[in-house]
Amino acid sequence: MRERLLALYELQIIDDELDQLESQRGDLPQHVRELEQKITSVKGSLKAKELEKQESEQKRQLNVTEMERLDESQKKYKAQLYNVRNNKEYDALTKSIDQSEEEIRKRELENETLIEREKILAEEIESLLPGMQEYESELKDKESDLKQIAKSNERQEAKVREKRAKIESKVKKMDVSKYLHIRKAKDGKAVVTIRRNACGGCHNVIPPNRQLEIRKMDHLYNCTSCGRIIVPTEIAEGVSIEDLLA
Ligand SMILES: [Zn+2]
Questions:
Q1: Region 26-153: CATH code
Q2: Residue among 141, 184, 170, 245 at smallest CA distance from 19
Q3: What's the gap in Å between 46 CA and the centre of ligand 1?
Q4: Domain with CATH 1.10.287 in the chain
Q5: What is the mean pLDDT of the chain?
Q6: Which residues have C-beta within 8 Å of that of residue 140, sequence separation ≥ 6?
Q7: How many whole angstroms from 22 Cα to the centroid of ligand 1?
Q8: Are 47 and 210 within 8 A, CB to CB?
Q9: Interval 87-109: pLDDT, tens
Q10: What one-character-per-residue DSSP string does 133-164 give?
Q11: Chain segment 217-246, per-residue pLDDT in tens
């Protein structure tokens, strides 16, 4: 029975170490993912606005060219006015002049609207850039932190996992599944010791007669409050992560 309890306790200690290595990574992977999503979204928005601005500029340039052409032909019509031979010719020319004038005016108005829109787009693009740069530099930092941690933990983690496999093979199958079940339900802690006459997990007091029973080590005892497996302090005293990994 002593061996059985010891193996369970060792399994807990080794899993504590793995949990700690894991927690050093903390929220970093999640942060990195969130930042990547934000950057993708801002980038998409920037791209759309830049495209719209470009198209507006092109449209405006086309209008300018067309207005220049209309202006030229208008000059020609006006010159021809001096050489008209009859009213019919005169009417046709003034009609053409009016039409091209109207056309020029229309394009001028359109260009004014386009300029306004481009101004707004430029402001929107400008306002998105600082946030984007911030996300990018934050992402760079987080990624480098993560790499650093992963690098320094890699060897240790491999060592701990190797040892864990050895220890788990010593634990009864039935106990392993019980252990894993409690561990999952109780925030990683499945095996605890008696501390100050109380359960080391939930701190509920353990009556003296029950403490005596636990010390006899002829049974697997669960805390009546939290369900964790309680091992006597004597078991824990001889176990340390350093010794386990040595
Ligand atoms: Zn408890």
A1: 1.10.287
A2: 184
A3: 55
A4: 26-153
A5: 93
A6: none
A7: 25
A8: no
A9: 999 999 999 999 999 999 999 99
A10: HHHHHHHHHHHHHHHHHHHHHHHHHHHHHHHH
A11: 988 999 999 999 999 999 999 899 988 988
Distance separating alpha carbons of residues 241 and 233, to the nearest angstrom:
16
> Ligand 1 (ion): which residues have CB within 5 A?
199, 201-202, 223, 225-226
Q: What is the CA(183)–ligand 1 centre distance, in A?
A: 13
Q: How far is the CA of 234 from the centre of ligand 1 (A)?
A: 18
**Longest Cα pair distance anywhere in the chain, in angstroms?**
130
Neighbours of 109 (CB within 10 A): 11
Residue 178 C-alpha to ligand 1 middle, in angstroms? 15
Q: How far, in Å, from the CA of 135 to the mean position of ligand 1?
A: 44
Residue 244 in contact with residue 14, Cβ under 8 Å? yes
Rounded to the nearest whole angstrom, what is the distance from the C-alpha of residue 228 to the centroid of ligand 1? 6
Measured in Å, residue 6 CA sits from the centre of ligand 1 at 19
Indicate whether 181 pLDDT > 90: yes
